[in-house]
Structures are given as structure tokens and as C-alpha cells.
Amino acid sequence: HSYKKGGVASGFHHVDTNVYNILRLLHVKGRKHVTATEVEVSWSSFNKGDIFLLDMGKALVQWNGPQSNRREMLKAVLLAQDIRDRERGGRAQIGVVEGADEQASPELMRVMTAVLGQRTAPLKEAVPDDGPGDAPGGSVKLYHVFENSGNLVVQEVAAQPLTQDLLSSSDCYILDQGGSSVMVWKGKNSSKEERREALNRAMGYIKAKKYPSSTTVEVMNEGGESAMFKHLFKSWRDKGQTQGLGTTYSAGKIAKVDQVKFDVMELHARPELAAQQRMVDDGSGDVKVWRIEKLELADVKPSTYGQFYGGDCYLVLYTYQISNQQQYILYMWQGRHATSDEITASAYQAVNIDNKYNGAPVQVRVVMGKEPRHFLAIFKGKLIIFEGGTGRPGVTNPDNGARLFQVRGTNELNTKATEVLARASSLNSNDVFLLKTDQTCYLWYGKGCNGDERLMGRAVSDVLSKQDKQVVMEGQEPAEFWVALGGKAPYASDKRLQREEPPHSPRLFECSNQTGQFRMTEVDDFAQSDLDEEDVMLLDTWEEIFLWVGNLANEYETKEALQSSQEYLRTHPAGRDPDTPITFVKQGYEPPTFTGWFSAWDPHKWSGGNSYEEMKAKLSDAASVSQITVDLNSANLSNSTGMSGGGYRAPGGPVSPSPLSKVQVVDLSSNSSTPTSPSNKKGQSMAPSPSTVDGGTGMYLNPQLLLNKSPSDLPQGVDPTKREVYLSDLDFENLLGTKRADFQRLPKWRQNDLKKKAGLF
To answer: Which residue intervals are annotated with compositional bias (Low complexity) in the record (predicted)?
Structure first.
């Protein structure tokens, strides 16, 4: 790999698992969502509360902070195992050092000292896992690269934490790990244009962000992800993987508890974590709407509030009161067809509004078509989503002839109209539809809709059209109706499920005193993996309260959780029945009435997985530690080894080469899983000779290191007159438009012409 600090300096498609040509330090941190990020290879990066993984290529040493949690320890061990198995061909050794008892691992501490130098200053204190921006993964951003109407769009994916299902095989993605590295992921079904441009956009992104030239770009195909990439996502599952994270046994450490009265009312005031899907009130507060015009805020006429066009971006500030104190929610609605400049401007303007209100607003990014329930309530049943176009005054939207709107909702709190393709196949027997043509406005009632839905359909149709509405019952459509939709076609006509969606979504809270004070924290978008063995979890299903008690939860948490659940019911703003049943559930004995609220419940999750202690014993045995010491001595790490690196000298450790003058690109998108470069005796990266390449060893350069470069900017050893021989067969064909064998048959002038056009001359 090529890394910001201490990484391999070039991008060859070649695996060599027997040399020390990698040096990096990974910081593993987090409580609910454990993430890993690369940091400076120095003792100054360490602290007492987290895990640090020293990766030296053929050996990995895991150092556990004295105050780190079991979930971090297990995640780090799994990361080390993943790097060993998937990136080092299973041939790297792993050792574990317990920071609270370093003397118990003298051999591994000698290795760490050889690389990092003597530790001259005390370790930094632990940083809270739940502090804002403290988690190394807190600055991770994911960008979606896709084609839209012939244009390439790069759009930030707002969801946090990142989940694997955000990645679509049809597109490409750019992942920014807080500037330490930038990764490009290519979906297996993405277009050539997307694949080619994703890398260019990533390079442009680094430049726009003014990241240092040592920032690296790592390119990978779907299915060939690096361990670091996967560990930035919550619950990544490889194809064919059946086992989860396993158990996180604890030694039963309990933080000192300050007996502070816990205020359950905080849960009801404005749970920021759930603002995008909770009903903080009935939507009767004050509303202010702006549209982004010329990258600035423009007031929207109140008479058009609720009308959102897919070609625009909007900011909606909602103000309400709790206990005579003003609270704010700032919704950022971004149209599917808005320009990237407008999307960027909307985020920038949201920050300005947030600053104006001293950071008080809860910021909620709204995906077009996925408007949360409270957002619907704000507009009192008059929310209309237009597929494209703009609401800017003085701009006439193109006339599409017929326009079809699907209306869903039974009252002013949950109704919206969404423009759909004006085709018969868009109809659905369970809903109301409005078909608007130049001559007529049809109100179509599906057989499955009820009186309330028809009433709301008529109300929203009055906003869309002042024409008289022609009511059409399903099955009694006039011929003109079908003509406007381009003819009859099959559509969804199944009756809706008999069991309606529950009116109140279940909510999960973690009850813990691990920070030294009893706290209840809501878990958004929960799954079975969020049930923490060391804590008590409260599941509110409205009709019942479940208290799930983890095997390692302490008595104080269990007692406080019961009292807090009673107070939670008593103070709930919806006037909950204080006699709502409270059910205790022990880990491993969950009834179906509990497990039914979790998707894909695994009854063997806690019995089948390995604990941290089991993983540690399996990976870091005496033989592994001994082998690391042998390898260290043979590699002479502390003196002369040439580590391909980012131009950084660890105190007392090896000297790496000077920083490279350009951003390094590492391509994992070949069949190889770990690109590394051989080093010469001085530790400098060398290109393979043309004869080596032609010999079929699979050692090829990334095209970005060859394209449009002056001879002095090329990697050492590259013949500037034969750049094409350093390309893989796939890159060769993509850039030169012909197969390698056919290229060799062309006259010299024709070869040079193709090379000039490709930027290889």
C-alpha cells in the first residue's frame, strides 16, 4: 500500500509477503462504532484509552491502552487478522501487548522500541469515545460518483455510521479518511466513464481540500477491498462470511459512579440522534424556507411552502418550544437533479445558519423521496415533490404534457404527493393519484385506498391544480385517461398487507455507567450487534418496554435501568400509560416478542463467536512472538532497513526516504490484493524493467504515475520512451484503444500517435 506516513512509495500490482516494506500505525477507537485510522508513527500518537496497531508488513503488533474497551480490542484483533489473511497472504505474524502490563511482553516491547524509539514522555490520557469528533472515524466522508443524464455527479453520502449497503455495484465511490488517505471504490457494474473519472475526481478532491502531497489514493474493485476500507464500515460482511464479531468478554471493570440524578426528560426534549425520524411535536411550530439561488439563500414565498423541485436545494428552519425554551431543527433538502455546486452551497449555508443560532439547530439532511415523518407534518398535508425543474421565480419549467403524482397519507401529519413517471405502470391500487394534463385534471382512486386517503388526495390536488377535478375510480377509467399515460399497462394491484405498520417505531437505548455516570443513550437504526453485553438496553415498542440485560452488565446498571424506564414512561410527552408492561430479558434467553423487532436475528451470535481473549490466544501465541523477534533481527529494523515511507523519521527509529513530490496512487483493482513495491538498497521505489513486465510477473504501474509526466517526474527506472510496457493489459487497452499484440504490429508513427493521444509520449 501507499500511505501518508510510512507507506509504500509506489503502485505496483505485485504481492511480496516476505519483506519489511510497510510501516504504519493504526489508531483503533470507539464504543458503539469502532473505527480505525492511520496516524503518525510515533509514541506521541498513543494514549491510554485506545488501541494502536503497529503494522510493519510481515509483523503486526497490537498495543492495548490500559483504559481501552473490549469491543475496541476485539475489533483491532480482527483488523490485524484481516490484514494478515487478505493482504499478506496469511504469512504475517501478530503479537499483542497489554498496555497495563508491558513488562509481560518484553520481546514485543523491544520491537516497538526499535521502530518507535524510546518512550521519553508519559502516555496521553484517554479521550472519551463519545466526544464530538474524538473518534478517528468521525471525519470519514463518503462521496457517491454516478452518471446522471450524461453528466458525472459527485455527491456526499450523509449517512453515519457508514454501512455496506450504501455502496451500489452500479456506481463508484470516494472515501475520505479525514485527509490521511483517500480511497476509490469501483462497483462491479459501474460504467467505464465512472471508473475512469472516479480516480480523476479523487485527485481533484485532494487538491481542492489542499491536502498534503503525501496524501495517498487507494483504488480498489468491489470484492477486493482492503482491510482498512472495510473496517471504516459498520458490520462489513465479505461474500460467504457467516460469522460476526463474536463475544466481547469483560473483566467486569466498573467506572467510578457519580450518584447524579439522571434527567429522563432529556430523552424527550430533542434527541439529536433521532431528530430525522422522531416526532418532536405535531409540526405546529414556526417554519422558514430558503432556496439556493446563485449559491446564496433566497427566501421562498410562504404561499409556496411545501413545494420542492428536484432541480433545487432547500433549507427549512423549524422552530418549536419545550419548557419555554426555543429549539431548532434545520432540514437540508437536496434535489436529485440539483447541481453539485448547489449541493455544496446548501451545506455551506446550513453552517452559516447554524452559526447564526450559536449551534443550537439539529441539522438533518433529507434525501429526496425519503422525507421523515416530522418533515411531512410541518407542511400540513401539502408537501409536493416535483421530480425535476425549479421553483425559482421567472423560470418556466419545460412542459412535459401529462404529469402524474402519487398521493400517500391519511391526515395532515403524514401526507405527501410525489411526482412519478407519467406511465400506467406507475399506478398502485393502494393509493390516490393525480394526473394533470393541459386539458383535464384526473383524481384517480385506487381500490385499496380509504376515505381519509381520498380526502387528503383531494386537498393536495387543490394545491397542484386549480382546475376542476374529474374523479376516476379504478376500473372505470375513460379512454382519455389511458391515452395521457401512453396506453394501458400492468401496475401494482395487490392489496396492502392486512397488518398496518405500527404507529410508533421501536426505539433502543443503551443504559450504561461506563463513563462514571449513569446515562441513557439512544441507538439509531439499531440491529442485534448494538446490544452490548456490558450494559443494559431498553427497547421501547410502545405496547411494552423490554430491559435486555447483558451477561456482563453490573448490578447498578440493572437497578438504575428499571427506575429510569419507569420515569421514562411517566414523563413521556405522549402521555404514556405508566402501567405499560416492563419486561426483563436476559442475554441468550430472548423471546420471539423481543427478537421480532430486530431484522435477521442470529440466535447463535453469542454462543458461536470467539471472544477477544480467544482471538488473542489464537493469533498471538509464543511462536508468533518468537518469529517476530527473529524477523526483527534479520531485518535490522532499527538501523539500515529501507522502509518505503512518507518521509518521516520516528524518534530513534528508521529513516524513510524524502516525501514524494506527487500524490501516490495505489491500485488494488487488479487481481492482486496488496500492491507493494520492491525497494532498492537505499529504500527507494523502483519500477520493474520492461523485460520483467513483459515476462508476465504481473508487476505493473498505475497509469496515473505515467500519464502526461515529464521524464523527471516518472518513477525511478521507467523508460520514458516505453511507458506503455508498464501498463496492465486492461489499462493498456483502455488507454490506447487496442490490444498489446495488435499495437506491436502497427507502424512506429501510428504507435507514437496513439501514445500522444493517451498522454504516454
So the answer is: 669-682
Retrieve residue 509's grid coordinates: 437505548
Q: What does the alpha-carbon distance between residue 513 and residue 259 come to, in Å, rounded to a whole number?
A: 10
Q: Where do the H-state alpha helices sit in 427-575? A: 451-464, 479-484, 555-570
Could you tell me the three cell numbers for 190? 459501474
Distances in Å between the alpha carbon of 671 and those of 160, 348, 389, 521, 730? 31, 40, 44, 44, 11
Q: Give 600: exposed, middle or buried? Use CB within 10 Å, 0-12, 13-18, 19+.
A: exposed
Are the C-beta atoms of residues 174 and 182 closer than 8 Å to each other? yes
How many helices and strands (H and E) does the chain possess? 18, 28
Nearest-5° angle of CA 108, CA 109, CA 114? 100
Pairwise CA distance, residues 304 & 388, whole Å? 16
Distance between CA 539 and CA 596 in Å, rounded? Answer: 12
- The grid coordinates listed for 753 are 500517435
Report d(CA 702, CA 45) in Å as an integer: 32
Backbone angles phi, psi at 352, to 5 degrees: -60, -45
pLDDT tens digit sequence for 228-255: 788 788 767 765 443 333 333 333 333 3
pLDDT at res. 152: 79
- Pick left, alpha or beta for residue 80 (phi over 0 → left; psi -120 to 50 → alpha; otherwise beta): alpha
Q: What is the pLDDT of residues 155-174, one digit of tens each?
A: 888 666 788 888 888 889 99
SS3 state at 86: helix
Backbone angles phi, psi at 227, to 5 degrees: -60, -40
Return the residue matching grid coordinates 376500473. Answer: 475
List domains and CATH numbers for the chain: 136-222 (3.40.20.10), 278-398 (3.40.20.10), 507-596 (3.40.20.10), 704-758 (1.10.950.10)
For cell 410525489, name the residue: 418
Q: How far apart are CA 168 and CA 368, in angstroms?
A: 18
Cβ–Cβ < 8 Å for 134, 660: no
Q: In which residue are the cell numbers 440493572 written?
A: 558
- Sheet of 362-367, strand order: 296-299, 286-293, 313-322, 325-334, 362-367
User: What's the pTM?
Assistant: 0.41
Residues 6+ apart with CB under 8 A from 559: none
